[in-house]
Design brief:
Elements: E1 10-14, H1 21-33, E2 37-43, E3 48-53
Antiparallel strand pairs: 1-3, 2-3
The structure holds copper (II) ion.
Copper (II) ion binds at residues 19-20, 22-23.
Length: 57
């Protein structure tokens, strides 16, 4: 059950300006402060940010 509810609420975005670990930290901080954000995953090599939203909204 836990795994199936995982993908539906995640949003991925490509961030071209994200080039180093400081960028990653800044993005993670900003996104994790949003009330709808459950978790943030950043892939620095692929410049992809994946955000898991909380259920409901
Ligand atoms: Cu940077």
């Amino acid at each position: 059950m836990a795994a199936s509810s995982f993908a539906a609420t995640s949003v991925k975005a490509t961030v071209n300006g994200m080039v180093c670990a400081f960028c990653v930290q800044g993005i993670e901080k900003r996104l994790s402060k949003l009330p709808a954000t459950q978790a943030v995953h950043v892939d620095l090599k692929q410049k992809v940010v994946a955000v898991e939203a909380k259920g409901g909204k």
